[in-house]
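Troubleshooting log. The previous run stalled partway through. Resubmitting the same two chains, unchanged.
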Amino acid sequence: MSFGRARFITGFLFAPILLYAVYVLYPYAQTAYYSVTDFSGFSPDFAYVGFGNYVELFEDEVFLKALGHNVVVLTVFPVVTILLALFFAFMLNVGGRGDKAGVRGVRGSSVYKFIFFFPQVLSIAIVAVIWRRVFQSNDGGLINSLLMAMGLVEKDKPLMFLAEGESVFPPITIGNFTFEAPVVLVCLILIAIWGGVGFYLVLFSAAMQSIPKDIFEAATLDGATRVQTFFRVTLPLLREHVSVAWVYLGIAALDFYALVVGMTPGPGGGGPNDASQVMSSYMMSNAFRPSRFDSFAFACAMGVSIAILTLLLAAVQLRVTRSRDKLEF
Amino acid sequence: MTVTPDSPSELNRRTLLRRAAAAGLLAAPAMSALAACASEDGEGGTTGEKTEANPFGVGDKQPLEVAFFNGGFGEDYAKFDVAAYEKKFPGSKVELKFSKTILTDYQPRFYGGNPPDVLNNSSPETIPVGPVVQGGQLTDLTQLLEAGSFDDPAVKVKDTLVAGVVEEGTFNGKMYTLNYAYSIYGHWYDEALFAKNGWTVPKTWEEFTTLAEAAKAKGIAAYTFQGIHPWYIHNVISEWIYKVGGKEAILKIDNLEPNAWKQDAVKVAAERIAEMASKGWIQAGAAGLDHTTTQQAVLDGKALFIWCGSWLEGEMAKTLPASVKLAVAPPWDLSGSDKAKYGAVHAAPGEGFVVPTKAKNQAGGLEFLRMMLGKEQARKFAELTKSLPVVKGAADGLTISSALTSASKVAAAATEVINWRYGGWYTPLQNAVFAAATDLAAGKSSAEKFMDAVQKAADEVAKDDKIVKQKAS
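Second attempt completed without errors. Output:
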């Protein structure tokens, strides 16, 4: 009987596991293998070269710069997105006026929910087109034209936004690493936040709705303010969801490929002057725009490094935010 | 379940991995294909007899696979060529394929050892010649050059081509790429706007500065460039370096000679761009705008000059006002002692075609290219694409577009052809010029900074023994 069940399950799992093995595991293994060769991507003849690609990678100025940019994104983007999403979710579900009985969100919360979620349904190509118009660096750009109409910006000195590589704070150098936040990168982070808040708002909303109302009512009866309710009741109960969101956003921050390629200057994005280069965009520009005959292998080494960094990050974040005791309700 | 802005990137990564997977899956059959190849004869399995009309000995029953890039030149000329080939070899079936991403679609087939017989290796995603030649995967086209031409077997193919075709297609001393279209580059302007204001096209830097101030007084920027696509501005500075320093200055750069980017010619060219930026002659915010926006600025009379290739008119056809008459000018003198005289024009063959060594019908591939270089096919190309082919005199007497006429006129009057090779050979060096020249034109840099940044990149390329070095002469 149990043998039959195992066969039944195996039958169902066979196809997905096979697909997973062929299209996910096998390419991963291949990428790792190529990263220690001088594979050009074109010729089936290549040689094993050991870890030379990795050594070069961590001496490569642009890669280190890109890594620094990823770190900046990683420190800003998840935190701001989660805080905003939490705040909005709280206001939409619990933050309504206390003058009536019961716990509710602010007036018109369903409309807000729709508005916040809207960026989520747009494809990245559309997002890029819209925001390029917003940030356009002449009087045709939305922000520039507004500021020009208000007389804050001169017509012949428009703000450059996506073509501005200056850091918003003085660069901090630690050893080989330089941390800086070029204007173009800040613009991209803003767009990513705009695009991401809606999704996490819905995630947190769903989580908040699963918290029994009596808990909030009890808190209100005890005289808790909205701020107190948020920090003492809502946040602790959402711990696991925030943790999951943190991991997702961390992975997204280490990626960031589509926004860079879709919006920034230069061949394959990353400009001006590598000011918006992130690891993934640099990897792609090495994989398929090579000048060295082994640049595909070099790009594979980059891919493996990104994967390892991402896995480490996920492990650390899950560990840090792991819930110690679980409340059943 | 990731954030929307990032999910397409997942897709991209997946595409990358899928490519790798596809390449891997193809590897096994490739082994047997390789084994099969080894047992066939050295001519790639030809069956036809070599005659004057069929110099490569194409078998009449041999099928042919040709892959074209589907871009600015459209599909029509490819279909015309295929029809002509099928007419000559009625027994063979030609499989015609089009692709917008040559690299993505054909990289796995190179890896797998089953490439098409003719490949139109064209942008924006080109298969880099270096690594493929390294792997011995491209056919040396010398046999094509030495063969009798399609129209007259007494005249060799190489003698029907305009100057520069062989050099442009050469890598490691052999010609692997046949570039089929001949592009003329320069600064484009609206003749009608100039006539209306009584302006003339500047021939010296002084004339340009006077014109720039006059245009500025009217609220028109004298100059603009395709901001976020730095390839264009990198052409301007390279052209200008050639103009000031002549061929010897460019040769030093192409051959990665020490301090080639610290020459006076480079300094003058960089200073000119910096001067345009600092005096406010460049369209405001151009560094952040794309090619269509800035090109449109010239069509709309908001800017006077933009550097571009002879495809400009075709590219902007949809938004080209009827009153605008596009014309092209060669680079004006930049100093009192320019080595290249006024009239020197930047022209280069482009739109490459290759025949892979592992092609099943290699002879057919070579014959297809030989036929494309025939008079009838070349003329049809000019008619259909409004561009010049690399065949001498192919477009003579064709009056199909004012921009093409202007370009042909400039080319005919050229005192010297401006061209350079470093860009195609050394991507990291070209990328450095991209970034540094954009900074110059955006007014964020100086000639000294430009020279330092690019020289540094050039030194790194020279040191890197994984970059195959080429020799220009």
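Takeaways: Chain A touches chain B through 79 residues (CB under 8 Å). Residues 61-283 of chain A form a domain with the MetI-like fold fold (CATH 1.10.3720.10).
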